[in-house]
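Customer ticket, subject: "Can you confirm the structure for Aldose epimerase family protein?"

Message body: Hello, I'm evaluating your service for our small team and ran a test protein. I'd like someone to confirm that this is what the system normally returns, since I don't have a reference to compare against.
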Amino acid sequence: MISKLENEEIMLKVDSLGAEMKKLILKKDNKNYLWHGDSKYWGRTAPVLFPIVGRLKDDSYIYNNQEYKMTQHGFARDNEFKLVEKTDNSITYALEANSETLNKYPFEFRLEIKYTLNENLIRVGYKIFNQDQKKMYFSIGAHPAFYWPLNEDEKKEDYYLEFEKKEKIAKYLLEAGLLNNQTEPILDNQKILELTPDIFKNDALVFKNLKSEQITLKSSKSERKIRIKFKKFPYLGIWSQSAEAPFICIEPWHGIADSVDSSGKIIEKEGIKDLKAGDHFDSSYTIIID
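Agent reply: Thanks for trying us out. I re-ran your input and got the following:
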């Protein structure tokens, strides 16, 4: 079921399937900034990644000496969420453990996703509750896709990403969706990352431990821009499906894909978080349309 949330500046549509954002319209130009999900390139728009981010080695993990199967990015994006609260400026969805999830993920959990509007800003909040009697292991991440280019008369090469601070960073390389323990320098004390259609030819750009907590998609030919604020997210992914795909994903993550030499044990997985029984975890990121 699609629900709508709006104020004087923006309008947001969210699907209860996956609690996934489907449209993000800036009213002053009546333009949808969120990719529409054409399966020719990629059929999703802004999936929530839970309880893993990225791919597991052999699409499996081990917990308490038992093997569990789970596909890339986890199962939350393919499950129906309940709409649990709607106010004038916010909407909250929830997903709880059930017999199907317990076969893949042996923890009693509750995941709440809250979308809040404030002028031209959308805050996406995650709240995860451990409702089990044991420690729970998880990752969570965002995967929103935005049109690239934003204007029909522009080219992809007209766009760039601007980091909040100067960065001296490398991208972590992937091999069949797994980290291959190699890196490649990409910025040397710079803020600007130029975008080209083939920048994702070897899969996503994966960054760790950035100084910046904000990144902006900008054009050299127009004033339109999209800012993402991701305070306290240890990882960031940037991705598009192909040189022809007219979208770019900007993905703050609490978690990351397995490495090619991963042990498979979830308690040893890089980026994994844990919650004691009865505890909860809060995080949020923000999208600002200018």
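A couple of notes from the result: The mean pLDDT is 97. The two ends are 28 Å apart (CA to CA). Feel free to reply with more questions.
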